[in-house]
Design a protein that fits this description.
This protein has 335 residues and is α/β, with parallel strands linked by helices. It folds into two domains: 170 residues, 3-Layer(aba) Sandwich (Rossmann fold), CATH 3.40.50; 133 residues, no CATH class. The protein contains twelve helices and seven strands. The longest helix has 18 residues. It is globular. The termini are far apart.
């Protein structure tokens, strides 16, 4: 079997994997507690680091594809590794020439993926669903997450699915590799609006890394959401997106109000907020909807707040340049 895929092996805007050591070292230095909640978890890279240090971790995100990946990496439940290996072996020995066109190939071939690869992805996704009753929930999530990570690696994009590369190279050698689950028993997984979740959440430390610009993640990763849900929606436009769902207030002018509401409802000892300084970006889609000063004011209403910063090369999939980009970390000790 090929090498297992780690949780950080995804192209994802705002992925904090390369900052995880810096972030966690500051949290461990300034915060005391046994529980940690990552309520805008994205790829789950920070949660994966947090499980090393905290007795109990909560991981949450609104995207279906992220929820599936959390269940595969962190979720409880049993799975038969030999069974998984045999299924993936079968998938990797399929002949695309013997597969009929399907929902995925009809919509996405020649754009995000080659025709042969699209047929494989569509066939595999349908087969996983057909096998669901014969799989444990953990096996189901592992297979789905493995498909999501594997197709994301070869997609003809710049790291998201807002558009495909018009003259891109469509790879024709699709292989589905398995993700590498964590063997832990202390993670609770949610797929909720963070502002709703915090009404019932108690944690010593709450880590907040919301989207700050106008790019809706559900739209940016619509193909992964499509594969995750597999309800085969009607698609629209050049980028072949479904109707908008799970739109975040944090991507709109309502972001400051949403953050203030969230912070005011937190039941915790420490609030930790990640932020990057694209507030003055010339690109309207990259420009933050909430300023550094607004975040500081909101956090200071709950307690003593410290601000740390780090020079960091911004992951940018477009043409916008951030020559003096910094990552910031607020830590508030709740009064």
């Amino acid at each position: 079997m090929n090498k297992l895929i780690n949780i950080e092996s995804r192209r994802y805007i705002g992925n904090k994997y390369k900052l995880k050591d810096w972030i966690m070292s500051l949290i461990n230095r300034h915060c005391i507690g046994s529980s940690f909640a990552d309520i805008f978890a994205g790829t789950g890279a920070i949660s994966a680091e947090a499980v090393k240090y905290f007795e109990h971790v909560v991981v949450n995100d609104l995207l279906h594809s992220n929820y599936i990946c959390y269940q595969a990496f962190f979720g409880s439940g049993v799975y038969n590794q030999n069974k998984i290996t045999e299924i993936l072996y079968t998938y990797n020995h399929l002949n695309p020439s013997n597969i009929c066109d399907n929902y995925f190939s009809i919509n996405f071939s020649g754009k995000y993926f080659s025709h042969r690869t699209s047929k494989l992805i569509g066939y595999i996704r349908e087969d996983i669903e057909n096998k669901k009753q014969k799989l444990t929930s953990k096996e189901y999530y592992i297979l789905l997450a493995s498909l999501i990570y594997s197709l994301d690696r070869i997609a003809n994009t710049v790291g998201h699915y807002d558009a495909y590369i018009k003259k891109g190279i469509l790879e024709d050698n699709f292989v589905i590799n398995q993700i590498k689950p964590y063997h832990i028993k202390k993670v609770d997984i949610f797929r909720q609006d963070a502002n709703t979740l915090v009404n019932s959440l108690k944690s010593d430390i709450v880590y907040i890394d919301p989207p700050y610009n106008s790019r809706q993640y559900g739209r940016f990763y619509h193909i992964l959401e499509n594969v995750a849900k597999w309800d085969k929606p009607q698609l629209y436009g050049v980028a072949l997106k479904p109707e908008t769902e799970n739109a975040s207030k944090y991507c709109t002018a309502k972001a400051p109000t949403a953050l203030a509401e969230l912070v005011n409802n937190l039941k915790c000892k420490y609030i930790v907020v990640s932020y990057n300084n694209t507030y003055k970006s010339k690109s309207s889609s990259s420009k933050n909807k909430i300023s550094l000063e607004q975040i500081k004011e909101i956090l200071e209403s709950r307690g003593t707040t410290s601000l740390m910063r780090k020079q960091y090369r911004f992951f940018n999939s477009g043409k916008t340049d951030f020559p003096d980009h910094k990552e910031y970390l607020f830590i508030t000790k709740v009064s």
